[in-house]
Amino acid sequence: MAIKISLHAKQRIMERGLTEQQVRHFFATNEGLLSVETSDRDSTVSVMEAMINGRKYRLICNLIDDVLVTVYPLK
């Protein structure tokens, strides 16, 4: 999947100790994918959980535009 990364997501990626390259690798390979669900609030939003660089993250994507909206770590 060729994903676009929003400015907000880029900021969160850096804050959370990831690199854009790691996130793009995840989308290119789905390596580490744990689950994918459609948001209960908006059917155009996908909520993914993944292991990236040894840590569990939630990634929120807009399915219409293939845009990563945000990324945050899970405990």
List the helices and strands and how they pair.
Blueprint: E1 4-5, H1 7-15, H2 20-29, E2 33-38, E3 45-52, E4 55-62, E5 67-73
Parallel strand pairs: 1-5
Antiparallel strand pairs: 2-3, 3-4, 4-5
Question: Which descriptors would you attach to this protein?
Answer:
alpha+beta; single chain; 41% strand; 75 residues; five-stranded mixed beta sheet; globular
Write down the overall geometry: globular
Report the radius of gyration as a whole number of Å: 11 Å
Terminal Cα separation, in Å? 27 Å
Q: What is the spatial order of strands in the main beta sheet?
A: 1-5-4-3-2
Number of helices: 2
Q: Show unreliable segments.
A: none
Work out the helicity level: 25-40%
Biggest beta-sheet profile? 5 strands, mixed
Order of helices and strands: EHHEEEE
| Beta strands, count | 5
Strand content: 35-45%
The overall average pLDDT, rounded, is: 95
How would you classify the helix and strand content by structural class? Answer: alpha+beta
